[in-house]
């Protein structure tokens, strides 16, 4: 099936209804949100995206949609808990971004449920890959190293769940095509320290000495990892990429970009 | 301090900002919401009230507000859990109303938190008292009995936390004046069956035989009671009314209303 692109600004009132009327979709995978690094944690844009998301979900269920998947975040959890389980961990977001994603997930779930529409909410953890904003962890380190610059890092003992964007994409499709309902963490299920991951970047680029450990403050959240029983057992999805394969593709992409002088 | 009334429709864009600019309040107790019996569980009006609530909270924190108290509901909890604890019970609302209140609570809390404003979220359970909509439990029974009619009731073994509206009002003021943050259940802390409460109504009106037990279907939620440690111990608030005193005031109010022919 060839893809059809339709441009729409979901922040414009009425646009969600218009697009849904044109497409009459059976399935909805909703990824759009405000995500400007350094801004999105606290921006009031989050409030506008809650409304845009809810408007889109309402239009979708009103026009005969059958399966809805929205995209949330590990920022919805109480970070003090460390390991995030969809059914057990407290939901006490520390940020307006996390609170807004949680709010959007609850509201779209309730809208779908009362219309008899199947709905799930994918919670993303730590992503990396080509096209990532250069201010983020993996992209900033890879970019510095392929340029031959130093890469200032935190001391790196924080534990996270990292996942390659191509695996994130295939996981979202798997959840969309399944009938699981409610929140589903999208994670590798392999807790990793920042230091382990960034060390692999240094080794794969061949510039381990350029990593300046402790040159940046570490995120005070010690551990933020994903329970993945729902994704790996219930949905039956597993990552296709090893960490090395994923980092190699990411490094190759940044090298090509630097070579082309588009940086 | 004499009260000043200002009329405003918070669903009209810009009204929240206007009112806050006029009043410049230090404290905000926000009760407005859509609450039409039979409609409010599923109505899309809930979505509009999430936005209105968030807009009001944003205007309040932007104009130097210091303490915000919003009003939520026991419908925010996963009802299968029975006893509702602010810190432990799963938040999985069964209704759009519950999801919307939960969403509004998270978003106003995050808006306040990042502005350094103190905020709490009061979760109401089962209220009764004068001025209640005649379609609700206590009001429907009292009204029927004072008219000399039969009062069809469910079998009544469901367990709930009931609280008199005057106690609810004083509890809200106590929470507003405290600095507790996050969700606070507003409850009596005395789990009661519907049958116990309605039996007292029958006895106090002197019409116990008019109660037709089992004539209506019972709510399938067996137990919905409030953990009240935060309200009773942390805030230090206790109800002032006994059940009998509260029911007597309610019955007297309905008797006067029926006598005046305003029913």
Q: Can you give a write-up of this model?
A:
- The structure is a homodimer of 263-residue chains.
- Chain A has helices at 15-23, 45-62, 96-114, 137-146, 165-177, 194-205, 229-235, 243-259; strands at residues 27-30, 67-73, 83-84, 118-124, 126-128, 151-152, 159-160, 162-164, 182-186, 192-193, 211-212, 223-226.
- With 263 residues, chain A is an alpha/beta fold.
- In chain A, strands 1-2-4-9 form a four-stranded parallel beta sheet, sandwiched between helices.
- In chain A, strand 1, helix 2 and strand 2 (67-73) form a beta-alpha-beta unit.
- The A-B interface holds A 42, 44, 47, 50-51, 54, 58, 87, 90-93, 95-96, 98-100, 102-104, 106-107, 109-111, 114, 182 and B 42, 44, 47, 50-51, 54, 58, 87, 90-93, 95-96, 98-100, 102-104, 106-107, 109-111, 114, 182.
Secondary-structure map:
The structure is a homodimer of 263-residue chains.
Chain A: H1 15-23, E1 27-30, H2 45-62, E2 67-73, E3 83-84, H3 96-114, E4 118-124, E5 126-128, H4 137-146, E6 151-152, E7 159-160, E8 162-164, H5 165-177, E9 182-186, E10 192-193, H6 194-205, E11 211-212, E12 223-226, H7 229-235, H8 243-259
Parallel strand pairs in A: 1-2, 2-4, 3-12, 4-9, 5-8, 6-11, 7-12
Antiparallel strand pairs in A: 7-10
Condensed summary:
The structure is a homodimer of 263-residue chains. The first copy, chain A, has 263 residues and is α/β, with parallel strands linked by helices.
| SSE order of chain A | HEHEEHEEHEEEHEEHEEHH
Class from helix and strand fractions of chain A: alpha/beta
Straight-line N-to-C gap of chain A: 34 Å
Q: Name the assembly state.
A: homodimer
Greatest interface and its residue counts? A-B, 27 and 27 residues
Alpha carbon gyration radius of chain A: 19 Å
Beta-strand percent range of chain A:
15-25%
């Amino acid at each position: 099936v060839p893809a059809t692109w339709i441009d729409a600004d979901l922040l414009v009132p009425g646009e969600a209804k218009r697009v849904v009327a044109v497409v009459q979709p059976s399935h909805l995978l909703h990824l759009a949100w405000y995500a400007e690094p350094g801004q999105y944690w606290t921006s009031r844009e989050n409030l506008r995206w809650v409304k845009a998301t809810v408007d889109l979900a309402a239009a979708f269920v009103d026009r005969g949609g059958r399966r809805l998947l929205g995209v949330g975040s590990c920022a919805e959890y109480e970070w003090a808990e460390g390991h995030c389980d969809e059914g057990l961990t407290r939901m006490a977001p520390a940020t307006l971004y996390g609170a807004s994603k949680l709010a959007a997930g609850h509201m779209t779930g309730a809208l779908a449920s009362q219309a008899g529409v199947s709905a799930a909410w994918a919670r993303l953890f730590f992503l990396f890959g080509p096209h990532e904003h250069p201010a983020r962890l993996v992209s900033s380190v890879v970019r510095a190293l392929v340029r031959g610059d130093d890469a200032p890092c935190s001391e790196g003992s924080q534990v996270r769940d990292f996942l390659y964007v191509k695996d994130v994409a295939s996981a979202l499709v798997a959840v969309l095509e399944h009938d699981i309902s409610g929140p589903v963490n999208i994670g590798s299920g392999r807790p990793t320290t920042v230091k382990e991951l960034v060390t692999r970047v240094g080794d794969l680029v061949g510039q381990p000495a350029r990593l300046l450990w402790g040159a940046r403050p570490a995120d005070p959240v010690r551990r933020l990892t994903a329970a993945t029983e729902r994704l790996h057992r219930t949905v039956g999805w597993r990552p296709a990429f090893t960490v090395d394969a994923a980092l190699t593709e990411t490094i190759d992409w940044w090298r090509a970009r630097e070579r082309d002088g588009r940086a």
